Amino acid sequence: MIRAGTLLLALTASADAPETVYSAPAQHRLIEGVATDGRTIWLSSVLDRTILAHRAGKGDSRIAMPAGTLHPLGLAWDSRRNWLWVATDCPDLPGVAKCDSGALIALDRSGRLKARLSAGPGFHPGDVAAAGGAVFVSDSLNGAVYRLNGNTLDPLIAPGIARSAQGSALSPDGKHLIVADYGRGVATIDLKTQVRTLLPMADGKPLRGLDGLVRVGADYYAIHNGSSPGSLLRFRITGAQIAVAVVHRGAPLADPTQLASDGRRLLIVADAGWPAASKPDQPPRGAGTLVAMPFR
Predict the structure, then answer these.
(1) Burial class (CB in 10 A: 0-12, 13-18, 19+), 229
(2) Could you tell me which of 90, 103, 196, 99 has the C-alpha nearest to residue 148?
(3) pLDDT at 176
(4) Is the peptide bond before 252 cis (omega within 30 degrees of 0)?
(5) Domain 19-294 maps to which CATH number in 3.10.120.10, 2.120.10.30, 3.40.50.450, 2.40.30.60?
(6) What pLDDT is attached to residue 226?
(7) pTM value?
(8) Cα(206)–Cα(198) distance, rounded to whole angstroms?
(9) Residue numbers of the chain with a pLDDT score lower than 70
(10) Where are the domains of the chain?
(11) Taking the C-alpha atoms of 122, 288, 168 and 35 in order, what is their torsion angle to the nearest 10 degrees?
């Protein structure tokens, strides 16, 4: 989650408002990631190192991060392994101890640690994606993107080539990874050749300021929080460009970060709580709100 630059989108937004489906208890002051298997929704509570599990009509539970792990950020559900992948790190926030590097970990449904991987010193993962058995993790501090290969993380984009890699999504044919780089824009990576290509909008400009990213069919949905208020965007790749539309802008997307699909709708962390977490003397304002929107 990064705030850098401003991009004003002169596009038409939908008038339909997102529906609130869950509000985290007030003590969870910073909610970042979201993942779902279509029934259970998992949310990462960053500061208290907890993952919240919500299932409508079934009650809520909490998973404490295993001993020796760091703060949970991005989440992704891996339906092949039945694991929840968690990007863990030490975000630059008051009260969070600094660390040399983070790790990508996997938990089973009960919270047992199943895997822990690192790309080496200086690895600071923030977002993770899983699809068809493939797992990808991005580093927002140096722009690197890695692919899971057995028990190792292989670089698809080496550190320093891009700027700030955020969410990613596998293309429909499984041959490309689409990456939202906060500072450089949307890029596609050929998974065979590892060639990276930036995809501008029709006017030739990059779409900067994107955070979370998910694919639904041929459409890619992304959170834009490079300007205030935040927006939910949809884009399609047409040749070497992206065609972008605004699905929703403004309330309740006060501080949106990540999103996931449950097969019927989008689930969006609408008000994560980063401003309040950065200034702990300020009370949270409805942080931890999860909203849903139908596909458009």
Answers:
(1) middle
(2) 103
(3) 98
(4) yes
(5) 2.120.10.30
(6) 85
(7) 0.93
(8) 8
(9) 1-16, 280, 282-286
(10) 19-294
(11) 110
